[in-house]
Model the fold of this input.
Amino acid sequence: MSACLLGKRVRYDGGSLSLTDEIVERWRSEGRVIAVCPEVEAGMTIPRKPAEILAGDGEMVLNGEADVVEKGGDKVTEAFLAGASVALDLCNRFNIKVAVLAESSPSCGSSVIYDGSFSGRKVRGMGVTAALLRRHGVQVFNQYEIADANKAILA
Ligand code: SF4
Done:
């Protein structure tokens, strides 16, 4: 799971997205949950500048067809790819088949992301970590799909 959903203050602005959910609490009590913040794992600071995928999505970043940029224009693509690799390594090491990642993030978004204009506009698409995990067969859900993630675990 995205660490920020578990109350870790790892977001770019130093905050979290704490999620209160009975199913997640049960997963945690069963020792099923591994927390990861791909961006922090890649060495990015807390806080850090907001970043968005420019003219593309996580799939295109994986293909070398788009970049992740910080507000101000600096490219941080390599760090985002490195963070995604850390998340994939965790999935492989712990045989994780289901991930719950924070929606809209350029790393963790799985249905929508910001459009690269830093104007608050969102577009359909995945972040870099979500795209890499899906490419390797991990089922990725967001924080609004916990029941679906639970079904996938039980399937
Ligand atoms: Fe949360 Fe993912 Fe952003 Fe880290 S990279 S703060 S886990 S959404």
Summary: The first helix runs from residue 22 to 29. DSSP finds six helices and six strands in the chain. The longest strand covers residues 51-54. The CA atoms of residues 71 and 118 lie 7 Å apart.
